[in-house]
Amino acid sequence: MDTSILIIEDDPDISDLIAIYLRKEGFRVDIAKNAEQGMSLFGRSAYDLLISDIMLPCMDGMKLVQWVRSQSDLPVIFLTSRKEPQQIIEGLRIGGDDYITKPFEPEVLVARVQAGLRRYRSTERKSEASAADLWTDGWLTIHKKRLEVSVDDKPLTLPAKELQLLVHLLEHPKQVFSVAQLYDKIWSLNGVSDERTVMVHIHNLRKKIEKDPAHPQYIVTVRGFGYKFGGRP
Q: For the Response regulatory domain, which residue ranges apply (predicted)?
């Protein structure tokens, strides 16, 4: 497991205990005894999760986490002896993902760490999937799974076949398709092609998405072969 955790805690007995349990689970652990040292470590290394006390010398953990949040969205667990509801609410409001009060069971803290990492990685995967679903170059935006298109930030309603044609070309940006291949793929009539149908749909699509339909940038003609998607994100 190549997962690194930063502990910021001014009580060495507590920080050492946490580190022992986390290292037993295979985590790489660094310890800082105050906010300044923690900020220095944070600036030099990439961490996957932060555990921070709130009552720290010089700068409290709340301000520290606000600074961390300006740099990263990694999971943050507050560890403190303060149990007031308002304190807990404030800690979560300013960017904490979890809040554990002292005294605590080390095994429970480890379980919270593992749960925080699972949630974060799940969110990351969803974000990556969402980014893969979205194509944009600032002028043309295509949400492939949602089947939504906008031009110059204005929603564009396309007939089903035009939308299918656009998405198909987008999903194969380096591939040139003949008229027969496009007709077979979009209209699903094997062995029968209607060049006029494909040409009309491409003509109409260009009028709607191209800045200059006479000189298309997205649906590009490859003379003697067919069409390809020519846009660049």
A: 4-117
CA 21 from chain centre, in angstroms, equals 30
Burial (CB count <10 Å: 0-12, 13-18, 19+), residue 230: middle
Residue type at 185? K
186 has a pLDDT exceeding 60: yes
Whole-prediction pTM: 0.56
CB 178 within 8 A of CB 225: yes
How far apart are alpha carbons 49 and 112 in whole angstroms? Answer: 11
Sign of CA dihedral 183, 186, 191, 192: negative
Structure confidence by residue, pLDDT tens digits, 90-99: 888 887 888 8
Using CA atoms, how far residue 116 sits from 78, 122, 123, 136, 214, in Å, is: 12, 10, 11, 32, 53
